[in-house]
Amino acid sequence: MGKPKQLLTYKGKSLLQHTVEVATGSNARPVIVVTGADAGLIKKELPTDKVTIVDNEEWKEGRASSVRCGLNALLHSAPSTDAMIIMVCDQPFVTTQLINDLLTTQHETGKSIITSFYKNIPGPPALFHKIIFPELLALKGDAGARKIVERHADDLATVPFPKGIIDIDTAADYETLQQT
Asked: N or C: which end of the chain has fewer CB within 10 A?
């Protein structure tokens, strides 16, 4: 795409800026941003007074390393935390309300995993209770948390997010987004 997708703009702001605004506007605290390959460029877009930035030195491994890096930073900065929410910045229609709905659903159901739900499957953004943290820390490679979610299907609740189907993985995806 010529530059990191986090820096692609939509409606006057980068995908990264949108994601950070959603996270910092929600009831979830602290907000931790994990950077990888283009950390130098990405850090310039981040409000250092509102988020904690951590560099994932193992970014070449894939998504699992980002999950581990973010969770380790969370446990270091807020060791008594009860849950974490994993967000990605290529979903331009995530809202603060959606993030708050994940928190509310966990509180109301007591389930250990609360995910967004679109395309008839659970997906990010997703909340994981601390009892799932050891499994998240054990992730390897380019795998996200999907297999963990599948293993805990009986302890899962979901929040509808029909627009979650829209994510920006290719130049064509971005071009389609720009037309909305």
From this structure: C
Distance CA 147, CA 136 (A): 10
The chain-wide mean pLDDT, for the chain, equals 95
Instruction: Locate 65 and state its tokens.
Output: 């390393």
Cβ contacts of 58 within 8 Å, gap of 6 or more:
65, 68, 69
Helix H segments across the chain? 15-25, 39-43, 63-77, 96-109, 133-137, 146-151, 171-178
Percentage with pLDDT > 70 across the chain:
99
Q: Is the pTM of this model over 0.85?
A: yes
Residues 20, 23: Cα–Cα separation, whole Å: 5
Mean pLDDT computed over 90-97: 97
Phi, psi of 114, deg, nearest 5: -125, 120
- Is the pLDDT at 177 greater than 80? The verdict is yes
What does the CA dihedral 153, 159, 165, 171 come to, rounded to 10 degrees? -100
Structure confidence at residue 3 (pLDDT) = 80
**Cβ–Cβ under 8 Å, residues 91 and 174:** no
pLDDT for residue 115 is more than 80: yes
Q: What is the DSSP letter of 72?
A: H
**Amino acid at position 68, single letter:** R
